[in-house]
Write a structure and sequence with these properties.
The protein is an alpha/beta fold. It folds into 3 domains: 155 residues, Spo0b-associated Gtp-binding Protein, Chain: A (Distorted Sandwich); 175 residues, P-loop containing nucleotide triphosphate hydrolases (Rossmann fold, 3-Layer(aba) Sandwich), CATH 3.40.50; 66 residues, GMP Synthetase, Chain A, domain 3, CATH 3.30.300. The protein has 8 helices and 18 strands. Helix 4 links the parallel strand 13 and strand 14. This is GTPase Obg. Pfam families: DUF1967, GTP1_OBG, MMR_HSR1. It is found in: Cytoplasm.
Length: 422
């Protein structure tokens, strides 16, 4: 099965906590703080791998976590940094923000890696808090939390050429002849349930990647059939080979078929109307094809390159491939920009502090407050003093006073209740 979209949750590693420790050496009677810093949490990284072609690996597992940083240790030993988690995806994968649907990254090159969630910084050990007036700090800093993000992985195939056309016009047969791909081929609609990729060798040193885009029928752009699931893969291609059943064997008009498919492409994305197309009038070996070919040339011959042939007998297949390769060399399609309009910038999480009043009670919370609380030893005078200094430095006391707090009233800081005194 072809999986081209996956919803996953990424979590970077938390930074390790700084250590509270003391020197105990035999010849150091004064001792002193000797707690080391915590290690940095691992990043959550997404990296492309040209050997992958689907997002199947993400179908069942939805949560991925990087390793936490190790806590600091005694004797000023730093904690070990956490290992990154690296998720490998096919080239051509978009990373979308799950909340907005906007594109965060467009991974269009092989071996391209991006940090989606950054690991938390390690906390400082108590040795870092020693000052001239604070000789024995009995507290250390907690590590930062790693970033978390819910994302959508969406694969858009990176093929040079896309085969489009109604079902049963011979796209899969053509693909099987010109490449080593082995798509299912049968005489009924929707045989192909996933895009098939293959490499076409035109001559020594001349080749291109071709994809059969299945499921295109009238109304595909609106979700009828399977077409809307696969239209996204057309966006990345440089040229389209529009395969038409010129024999009209299914009692359809070849010219009408051409216009209907193009209408679906434009409805899905208006920019697709500018994509180069070569028309392959297939099934010339079937009676009635010559008459339909003349009609097709009269209608479209001055606008498009039309090559008549047969995938079944291989008539003019070499000519089609040569014309396609030459047109690719004239195109600059590989310098494309992602068609998706909405892009989301990844902004590093700010350690905000919220000070607010709700139902007559006062609250202080936020990531910074959470970290400050985890860093505080409430049984140690110096640690409490450091806690209060940080609240003042970050204008928490000032904001509480602006909200009208008075001495003796309670304030809830990160889930702990304190009595307010100026």
């Amino acid at each position: 099965m072809f999986i081209d979209i996956a919803n996953i949750k990424l979590k970077a590693g938390n930074g390790g906590d700084g250590a509270v420790a003391w020197r105990r050496e035999k010849y150091e009677p004064a001792g002193g703080p000797a707690g080391g810093d915590g290690g940095r949490g691992g990043d959550a990284v997404v990296k492309t791998d040209s050997g992958l072609h689907t997002l199947m690996d993400f179908r069942y597992k939805r949560e991925y976590k990087a390793e936490n940083g190790q806590n600091g240790m005694s004797k000023l030993k730093f904690g070990k940094d956490g290992e990154d988690i690296i998720l490998k995806v096919p080239v051509g994968t978009l990373i979308r923000d799950q909340k907005t649907g906007g594109v965060i990254y467009d991974l269009k090159e092989d071996d391209m890696s991006v940090v989606v969630c950054k690991g938390g910084k390690g906390g400082l050990g108590n040795a870092r808090f020693k000052t001239a007036t604070r000789q024995a700090p009995a507290f250390a800093q907690a590590g930062n939390r790693g970033e978390e993000r819910e994302i959508i992985l969406e694969l858009k195939l990176l093929a040079d050429v896309g085969l489009v056309g109604f079902p049963n016009v011979g796209k899969s047969t053509l693909l099987s002849i010109v490449t080593s791909a082995k798509p299912k081929i049968a005489n009924y609609h929707f045989t192909t349930l996933s895009p098939n990729l293959g490499v076409v060798k035109v001559a020594e040193g001349e080749s291109f990647v071709i994809a059969d885009i299945p499921g295109l029928i009238e109304g595909a752009s609106e979700g009828i059939g399977l077409g809307d699931e696969f239209l996204k893969h057309i966006e990345r291609t440089g040229i389209l080979i529009h395969v038409i059943d010129i024999s009209g064997s299914e009692y359809r008009d070849p010219v009408e078929d051409f216009y209907k498919i193009n209408e679906e492409l434009v409805r899905y994305n208006e920019k697709l109307k500018d994509k180069d197309q070569i028309i392959f009038a297939n099934k010339m070996d079937v009676p009635g094809a010559e008459e339909n070919l003349e009609k097709l040339k009269a209608e479209l011959g001055d606008k498009y390159e039309i090559i008549a042939g047969s995938a079944a007998t291989t008539e003019n297949i070499d000519l089609l491939l040569r014309k396609t390769y030459n047109k690719l060399q004239e195109s600059d399609y590989k310098n494309y920009e992602t068609y998706d309009e909405a892009h989301v910038e990844v902004v590093e999480e700010v350690e905000a502090i919220r000070v607010y009043k709700e139902h007559g009670e006062y609250f202080v919370d936020g990531p910074y407050i959470d970290k400050l609380l985890r860093s505080t030893n409430f049984e140690d005078y110096d640690s409490l003093k450091y806690f209060q200094e940080n609240l003042r430095k970050n204008k928490v006391v000032e904001k509480l006073e602006e909200l009208g707090i008075e001495e003796g009233e309670s304030v809830f800081i990160g889930g702990y209740e304190f009595e307010f005194f100026e």
